[in-house]
Specification:
- The longest helix has 30 residues.
- The protein has 315 residues and is mainly α.
- The relative contact order is 0.18.
- The protein has 13 helices and no strands.
Length: 315
């Protein structure tokens, strides 16, 4: 079966899953339907941003067990939320509009990523794994600072920070959804020109340069796109660490192709199936006793261990 037919089946499964979430046991068309539709739109935004950015990040790094969270963006997001509560108190955070918090979080994470890229790519010939190593170290530093301040703050204030630690689609602000759509369309629209280079980029630096690709420019623009989309998804719903790893690798396994125009679309469809199906489990089976990020991270963590064991056997 070719990639086009597999994509068709994935699209059909995604539509069935989303329709199931939207209409299953729907008792109130005036209240429940608009609420579920808005949650579904938020899932589409977060799923698309995470799937798109993870596939590109893995192509750039030539590693299928890495996700953009390795750059420390999730830890930086939690540090920003903790610093706000620690220095300004919960009342200031509550009074701050959701739009200001949203754009402030995105701005800080994107500026941090661009500054890191500028410092790391200043010299010629620096391996990209040096950039990843610095990202891991800074992420650990951010996480340690967050933990230190969380220990010192009042337990009631800690509850505000705790709400930010886990991704949730239940309390997404409507205004943030529209801002996210606009930002994602502009960002991904501007990157469409570079998608044709991703197939060549997956061959490696030397092969890409020999085939006439401006390697440094494409990699730098790809990493900026990854930073914006990851920051957008994190600021909108919270960190979902293993979703990108899960959907990207399932896309590789199912489609069995190197062409990114199929892989990107496949990863987006799988993320929609995972998020809509997971949210149904949270609402119908677990009756909101857990969050979607816990389920996704549990399944993604198991899949991560499977990938490590499989790679270990191949060495």
């Amino acid at each position: 079966m070719g990639p086009k037919r597999k994509l068709g089946l994935l699209a059909l499964l995604a539509v069935i899953t989303m329709a199931g979430y939207l209409f299953y046991e729907l008792t109130s068309w005036d209240y429940a339907l608009p609420r579920r539709a808005m949650v579904l739109v938020a899932m589409a935004i977060a799923g698309t941003a995470i799937a798109f950015s993870t596939v590109i990040f893995q192509t750039v790094t030539h590693n299928r067990i890495l996700t953009p969270s390795v750059m420390g963006l999730d830890s930086l997001y939690l540090l920003v939320q903790t610093v706000l509560v620690f220095f300004f108190g919960t009342q200031t955070v509550v009074n701050l509009s959701s739009e200001v918090q949203f754009f402030m979080s995105i701005g800080i994470m994107v500026c941090f990523s661009i500054l890191l890229y500028q410092l790391m790519f200043r010299g010629e010939g620096k391996p990209i794994y040096f950039l990843l190593l610095v990202g891991i170290i800074l992420g650990t530093l951010f996480q340690s600072l967050s933990s230190f301040m969380q220990v010192l703050i009042d337990p009631n204030e800690f509850l505000i920070v705790q709400d930010k630690m886990f991704a949730s689609f239940n309390n997404v602000q409507v205004s943030l959804v529209w801002w996210s759509i606009a930002l994602m369309v502009v960002t991904m629209g501007g990157y469409m020109y570079y998608i044709k280079y991703l197939d060549v980029l997956s061959l490696g630096r030397e092969q890409s340069v020999n085939l006439g690709v401006s390697y440094e420019k494409v990699v730098r623009n790809s990493l900026v796109l990854v930073a914006i989309l990851t920051s957008l998804a994190t600021a909108l719903v919270g960190p979902i660490t293993f979703l990108g790893l899960l959907v990207a690798n399932l896309s590789y396994e199912i489609l069995k192709t190197y062409r990114h125009r199929y892989l990107l679309l496949g990863a987006i469809l799988i993320s929609m199936i995972a998020l809509a199906g997971g949210q149904m489990l949270v609402e119908r089976v677990f009756t909101f006793s857990t969050t979607l990020s816990v389920i996704v991270n549990f399944v993604g963590g198991l899949y991560f261990i499977y990938l490590l064991l499989r790679e270990n056997r191949s060495w």
